[in-house]
Sequence to fold (424 residues):
Amino acid sequence: MKQDRTLMDFLFIAIIGGWCLVVWAEDSLPGKDVESLLAIAEERNPEYAGQRFEADAALARVVSAGALPDPKIQIELRDITRLGAQDPTLFPNQVGNTRYLITQEIPWFGKRELKRTVAEFEAEGSQGQAASVWNDIAAKIKIAHAERYYLSRNERLTNEILDLMVRLERIAETRYGNGLATLQDVVRAQVEQTSLRNELIAIETEYHHRNTLINALLARDPMTPLAEPERLRPLPPPAKLDYAVLLLRVQSHNPLLSSAEARLAAAEKNRDLVYKNRYPDFTFGVSPIQYQNSIKEWELMVQVNIPLQQSSRRAAEHESEAMLSAARMRSEMTINQVRSDLAENISGIESVRKTETELSDRLLPQSEINFRAALAGYENGKVDFSTLLDAERQTRQAKQALLKVQLEGQSRLAEIERVLGAAL
Fold:
């Protein structure tokens, strides 16, 4: 008896432990909220990681851009036969004399500083580009999470309507058996159920596609499970959606703008550098000369390149001016696009707020009252089955419209945060 009780206790503990492991595994899955997804993507997304490496590489180029070229050493073995008195030799102390030439190239004044400045601005632009890539990835994740929430809730709603249609089919069968309804009512209820089951298949497919998209953004296997989304982020209050205030934040935080400004500054400095090429660079050298085992002569050397190829220089200057103009146009285009996106999404989120209020406070309660009245009327024989189905569809459409509006609100919020370069 005691052994049986011990065995039962062991089985009970094993069952409870297994259940706890299942619950823990489900709780540990990302996807319940968007924050858990963003945390993984920021660490693992390969596109963002690649952009960060490129930004690091651009930052490393700053040091080398302003550095002097490596010095050069040249060795000349002169008169290796000693005027024919010996066989050729390559030993410095056995030839007529050996000349060592050490040279260092020195660019014209200001060129090194300009090269370093260009590299600094390019590195800043690369960092802004990396931040912009992350903003795009984060916006995709936020929107995909909202779509998963919409599909999940729409699936629940469709299942509820399917259960309701099963009940209506039974009511129609009862009324048909009592001679109070036609067989067509039963058939129409069955047709509605088939249609709803097809909708469920489409919803499940779309839900799977969204999971696949998120797993790709998280650099995970497409079939890796995700937790069911539990909530959406609340929309910001109207006080936080002032266009003028947000525009100031955009101008200081938007990575696309900072990247465009940095690349514009780099283009300006690069143009100045190209114009500096009108002036020559120098090469300085010192040359000790060895006779047998001792240094007996010293020479100094200065070399200046002559900028005679004026046509190629003018072409390079024209190129730099054109690139500067293109950078200005891209910067202006970016500013206009950012402003347009900000204004459009602020207006869109306000429209979402008003529509959601209308749906939740007016249309949805009215449609539910209408359906309950139609259901009672059908049971009492005062309303036909078509009227009941119309009332059911109106209720379902109102609930789906509310979910769609919430999805649009989340999409607008994600776009605003993408433009801002930060969370609201």
Confidence is low (pLDDT under 50) at residues 17-26.
